[in-house]
Amino acid sequence: MAALRGGRPGRFALQAAIAALHATAPTYAETDWPQVLVLYDEPARVWPSPVVALNRAVAVAELERDRWLAGYYYLPAVKYERAIALADNDAERAFLRERARSCGDGSCSDGSCGGGACGHRSCGDQRAR
Fold this sequence. Notes:
mainly alpha, 2 domains, 57% helix, 0% strand, disordered C terminus
C-alpha cells in the first residue's frame, strides 16, 4: 500500500487503501479483514462519522463471524427468507426458494450450508463464477 507510506495518511488515502483491499481480494471471504479493521481505526478516531462507525463494525463482525455463528444452522435459511421477502418479482422469488431448498443439503463450500461443493454462486463456491 504505497499510498500509506511516508507519513500519516489522510482520509482519502485510507479510503483508497480500504477500497484496494476489497478490490484485490479474490473473493469476499478472502478479504483481508484484519487489515481493513486497522485502516478503519484511524478515521474512526480522527474523522468519526456514522458511516465510518458502520463500516468498522462490519470489519469487526467479519472477523468475529465464525466464532459468533459457529453451529448456528438456521443462518442459511434466514439469509434466503430475507432475500425472498425483498424480491420484487415471482421469478426471482421462485429462484431463491429453489436455492434455499437445495442449499440446505449441507453442500456449500463456504460452510454456510455445511461444507462440500454445491456450485451455488450465492453460497460462495468459486467454481460457479
